Amino acid sequence: GAVVSQHPSRVICKSGTSVKIECRSLDFQATTMFWYRQFPKQSLMLMATSNEGSKATYEQGVEKDKFLINHASLTLSTLTVTSAHPEDSSFYICSATAGVNQPQHFGDGTRLSIL
Amino acid sequence: AQSVAQPEDQVNVAEGNPLTVKCTYSVSGNPYLFWYVQYPNRGLQFLLKYITGDNLVKGSYGFEAEFNKSQTSFHLKKPSALVSDSALYFCAVRALKGYSTLTFGKGTMLLVSP
User: What is the pLDDT along chain B (114 residues), one digit of tens a residue?
Assistant: First the structure.
């Protein structure tokens, strides 16, 4: 149980393209979903927290107009990297939790490469 | 502010030997502690958690962790390491009361040699 599906697993695209990443909780309802960014050989950096039906809460230094998050249902959150540039290249990971005292379950991540 | 320290960038152990991956934390109030494992180009997999109760927590794949309140530690252990345990391990903490986001340590690479 507690499976989180993240798609796509890898994206390679040109600078200026917008990229959408989907995160789905397959067998539970996720009250909260999280989006992280991970740089090589580093820990996860929380970008934003999203609750179904409300605006995402972004961490300091994360541009909300650059990284658009939509949490339309209890099983789906999307991250759109708008007008992506090479410096946006990274490994993006989502996670979901069924409640405040429940573990976060992670997707397999999306490797984004902007040429 | 809450924080997690994983003092070792890498831990090397021979297959069959016991392993320990260290973690200390700082949080306001009682902690909610986790260990996750990450394989290359994959997300994090949940191993185990501690909320309350027995200080020794058993998790997936034979791993266990010992909560020590006085030392604010939550070290990950396994009695007999496997080559397939080689991966990146993250310790994470959040305050048990109220709602705060998880804070992750920087990760420890575990290398198990045959």
Answer: 889 999 999 999 999 999 999 999 999 888 999 999 999 888 899 999 998 888 999 999 999 999 999 999 999 999 999 999 999 999 999 887 766 788 999 999 999 999
SS (H, E, C) chain B: CCEEECCCCEEEEECCCCEEECCEEECCCCEEEEEEEECCCCCEEEEEEECCCCCEEECHHHCEEEEECCCCEEEEEECCCCHHHCEEEEEEEEECCCCCCCEECCCEEEEEEC
CB A65 within 8 A of CB A82: yes
**Residue A108 contacts B, CB cutoff 8 Å:** yes
What does the pLDDT look like over A38-91, one tens digit per residue?
Answer: 988 788 899 999 988 888 999 999 999 999 999 888 999 999 999 999 999 999
Asked if B25 and B72 touch (Cβ cutoff 8 Å), the reply is yes
User: Considering only alpha carbons, which residue of chain B is nearest residue A101?
Assistant: B96
**Chain B contacts of A108, Cβ < 8 Å?**
42-43
Ramachandran class of B35: left when φ > 0, alpha when ψ lies in -120 to 50, beta otherwise: beta
DSSP string, A27-57: SS--SEEEEEEE-TTS-EEEEEEEETTSPPE
User: A32 vs chain B: nearest CA distance in angstroms?
Assistant: 11
Cα separation, A93 vs A107, in Å, equals 6
How would you classify the pairing of strands B73-78 and B19-21? antiparallel
